[in-house]
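The following block was generated as part of the benchmark described in Methods. Ligand: S-adenosylmethionine.
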Amino acid sequence: MSTLSYLETLYPSWGQQFLMDEVVFEVKTEHQHLVIFKNAQWGTVMALDGVIQTTEKDEFVYHEMMVHVPLLAHGNAKKVLIIGGGDGGILREVLKHQYVESVTQVEIDQQVIDMCITYLPNHSAGAYNNPKANIVIDDGVEFVNRCTEKFDVIISDSTDPMGPGEVLFTSRFYQGIQQSLAEGGVFVAQNGVSFLQTGEVVTTAKRLGSLFQDVHFYSSAIPTYVGGIMCFAWASDNRALLNVDLATLESRFAAAGLQTRFYTPQLHKGSFALPQYILDALNNG
Ligand code: SAM
């Protein structure tokens, strides 16, 4: 019997393909098409609406960079908000920071959470049962525009700006973020593979730039987010956070007792250095 293959459809004329050794779950949820399959190279893989979301093999790269950069820059985040993040990897990494008192995660699709707990258990690794975790099933844009609570760090781990994720790249969402961010806090968001989605970086910079004093991007190469480096948006009114020196990051990293496989304080500092084509796009934007 020939092996089925999964062709990512994020880009109309190009994409990565996975042989599916086994499709363990597939459903059209209320919000999106969800498929989880096994692949010899990447282990168990989850995709939403034709776009690879996470794999067992490389998930740590993305989750460590999305969490430890803002949390170690902040240094004393007690309340954290996650938008999206249904696979649980962001929640797992946030809870490794012992001084965090509560994490609220706003995920639109309960089935993503349920199926990832079942088929990708190491992503959340029990985080959904942690008493500090408060899981809310809602549209992230509605939550942040209604919420009166303030958060020290907000992380938007959303799908791409299509389908349910589209609203998480709008000015209305960023206005909600601004009103939900505590004084001195920082917001980070996945902002696409910049070589192929350069427009997303430029648009986000404009929209965040009208709301926050300090907007930047940092980057990392995530193996299965194909096309080169992924950019992460950074927005804060506290300019000091971006400029935390290496020695401080190193001491916070040591004090946190984090066992990472990708993040290092040196990489943290270096990740804010961007290629010229991105700087040009931002300047010309
Ligand atoms: N790391 C992936 C990436 O960079 O593309 C994202 C992974 S995570 C699975 C994306 C999550 O965003 C999904 O669980 C999806 O259900 C959720 N999501 C999409 N739109 C949303 C919305 N408007 N509000 C809350 N969660 C949303």
